[in-house]
Amino acid sequence: ALEMGTSHLTIRKALALLVKEGWIQREPGVGTTVTGPLEGVRAAGPPLSRLALLLEEADDYFARIANLLEAECRRRDVALELYCHHRDVTLLHDQFIRASRDEGALVAIVPVGRDYHWLGAHTAAPRTIILDGTVEGVAAPQIVSDDTSGISGLIRYLVNMGHRVIAHIGAESKSSGRARKQAYTEALQHVGLPPDPTLYGNGDFLVEPSSQAFSRIIEARPDCTACVCANDYAAFGVVQELNRRGLAVGRDVSVAGYGNYDISEAIGLTSVDQQPHRICDQVMHLVDEYTRHGRMPAEVLTIPVELRIRRSCAPTRDSEE
Questions:
Q1: Distances in whole angstroms, Cα of residue 161 to Cα of each of 82, 100, 104, 235, 321
Q2: Which candidate, 217, 182, 214, places its Cα nearest to that of 198?
Q3: Alpha-helix runs per DSSP H in the chain
Q4: CB neighbours of 119 closer than 8 A, spacing ≥ 6?
Q5: Residue 40 above 50 pLDDT?
Q6: Chain-wide mean pLDDT for the chain?
Q7: Contacts of 88 (CB under 8 A, 6+ apart)
Q8: pTM given for the model
């Protein structure tokens, strides 16, 4: 009151208003502490000027996300900075440090691997958006596709066409691959088909490893009539192996991917559309949240998916008869 040249009553009213708006907190026996602003009041700090996007690579799926984000960032006068870590965790760490150095930047990161203790402890974690996966222990928004719905939809579709021996080419290197494997197992159980380890192979989201994994499956289980893959590249590997063996996609073995790449439509591959435009909309919503309030919700945000049915999946011969 002495410092501000006003009455004690005015100071008490001012402090009560700060409590009401969430700037301070009073505790008996402890005193008054600063807690920060409530929703709608932006914390002091630099304005948002840049969005750094750390991708695995600029493939079909991620390139579409990058292009959509670039257009939206331009409209908001926010610079988009692109990095590609090519699944190199050390390079990813270095890129994150470089990208997050500017306190006026948000960082959208596509993770690989499992060990991200450094991210959870980093001061830039509240300015980070996790894309296409989840990272435990990081208080940041994490955007994922509805893998349970996507994979279970494929399994139901194949079962309705008479398929009972359905393989899965998965990916152990990313949380999204592990989530899709779990969804595959649960979907089989839901339709009364017991999961069988001989019908699973790890293709790591890549063409050649997926082709080799499916080769081992078809050798062990020649009765396999369908294969659900963790992404479209894995499906391309399965198609490659079928062609090598003189088997026809759809007629002999039905194949489904995940991601709905541009080339998938051209070759008639059944796939799950992860809807990159919805992912972009969610990222920009988080950008707007940070711009207005200085923070983003630390929660998992699930993006709906849609099945794209094409000729690579067909009824079994028994069901046709």
A1: 43, 50, 53, 19, 12
A2: 217
A3: 8-20, 60-75, 89-99, 117-120, 147-160, 175-190, 207-220, 232-244, 262-267, 276-293, 317-320
A4: 96, 109, 111, 125, 128, 135, 138
A5: no
A6: 91
A7: none
A8: 0.82
CA distances to 96, 155, 167, 238 from 221, in Å: 44, 18, 9, 14
Close Cβ partners of 166 (under 8 Å, ≥ 6 residues apart): 155, 158, 159, 188, 193, 199, 224, 225, 226, 227, 228
Strand order in the sheet with 128-131: 79-84, 50-55, 105-109, 128-131, 142-145, 300-303
For residue 318 the two structure tokens come to 């028994």
**pLDDT in the model for residue 15:** 85
For residue 307, what are the β-bridge partners?
Answer: 272
Task: Using DSSP bridges, classify how beta strands 300-303 and 142-145 pair: parallel, antiparallel or unpaired.
Answer: parallel
Angle (deg, nearest 10), helices 276-293 and 60-75 = 40
Question: Could you give the percent of the chain with pLDDT greater than 70?
Answer: 95
Q: How far apart are CA 16 and CA 13, in angstroms?
A: 5
Q: What is the per-residue pLDDT across 114-166, written as a single tens digit (0 to 9) for each?
A: 888 889 889 999 999 999 999 988 999 999 999 999 999 999 999 999 999 99
Report the candidate in 121, 143, 125 with the shortest Cα–Cα distance to residue 134. Answer: 143
Locate 102 and state its tokens: 């500017």
Would you say 241 and 214 are in contact if contact means Cβ atoms under 8 Å apart? yes
